[in-house]
Amino acid sequence: MMARKKLSNLYLIVVFAILYAPIFYLMFYSFNSGGSMRDFEGFTLEWYQEVFADTRLLIIVLNTFVIALLSSALSTILGIAGALAIHYVRRYKPKNTLLTLNNVLIVSPDVIIGASFLILFTIIGIKLGFTSVLLSHIAFSVPIVVIMILPKLQEMSSTLIDAARDLGASNWNVLTKVILPFIKPGIFAGFFMALTYSLDDFAVTFFVTGNGFSTLSVEIYSRARQGISLSINALSTLLFLFTIVLVAGYYFINQRNNRPAAVGEGRR
C-alpha cells in the first residue's frame, strides 16, 4: 500500500514538473538582461517596463479584459437559464438530447467552432471585431456554465421549492430566494471558468478577429512569429500570475460560501 502511494506521488510530481517546467523557464528568462533565452546575463525589469510602455499593447489588454468580463457575465446569465431549462425537463429523451447538444459544444475542436463562427458572421454581415469576438466567447462559455450549475440543481431537494410555494412564494421569489442562493457556488464556478476560458482562448478568437482589433492570445502569437523577444516572456508571466490570482479568488469565494453551511450543520 505504501509503495503504491509513493508511486502515485512520484507520478504526480513528474506530471506537474512536465507541465510547469516550461512556464517557469519562460518566467525565469523574462528577467534576463541578455535579451535571449540561452545565457542568463543578469537580472532586469526592462522587459516588463517595455510591456507597460507599449500603448498599443495596453489597449489590447483592455480589450481582452472587457471581452472576458462581458462574455463571462452574459454567459453566466444565459447559463443559469439553460441549466434551469434542462433540469426541469421531465421527459428523459428531450432532457438527454439537450445535455448531449450542450456537451458537444464543449468537446468540439476549437478550430471547427472558430471556422463555423467565421462563416456565420460572414453570411449574416457582422463585421469581424469586438462584436464577433464577444458573441463567439459567449457561445462557447454558455455550455461550460451550464455544466457547472447543473450538479448543484441536482443536489437541491424538491421539498425546498414545495415548502416555499406552501408559504405563498411566487415563482420569482422561489427563483431569487431559494434556487439562486442554493446554486450560488455553481454560478461563481461557472463565471470564473468562463472568465479563464475567455482570457485563454486563441483558436476561436483567431478566426473571428478583424483588422484593428486583437486580444492578448492573438497578439502574443503574432509577436512570437516575428522572432524571440523577452517582452513576450514578460507578458506571458503577467498573464500566468493573473490566472493564479483568479484561481485563488475563486477558491477563497468558494470556501467563504461553504463556511456558513458548515457552521449551520455544526450548530445542529
Rg (CA only): 23 Å
> How many separate domains?
1
Number of strands: 0
Rounded to the nearest angstrom, the distance between the terminal CA atoms is 38 Å
**CATH architect. name:** Orthogonal Bundle
CATH topology: MetI-like fold
**Class computed from helices, strands and strand pairing:** mainly alpha
- Please tell me what the overall shape is: globular
CATH superfamily: MetI-like
What is the name of the CATH class?
Mainly Alpha
Percent of residues in beta strands: under 5%
Q: Characterize the main sheet.
A: none
- Number of H/I helices: 12
Mean pLDDT: 84
Which percent bin holds the helix content?
A: over 70%
Task: State the order of secondary-structure elements, H for helix, E for strand.
Answer: HHHHHHHHHHHH
Catalogue the unreliable spans. 261-268
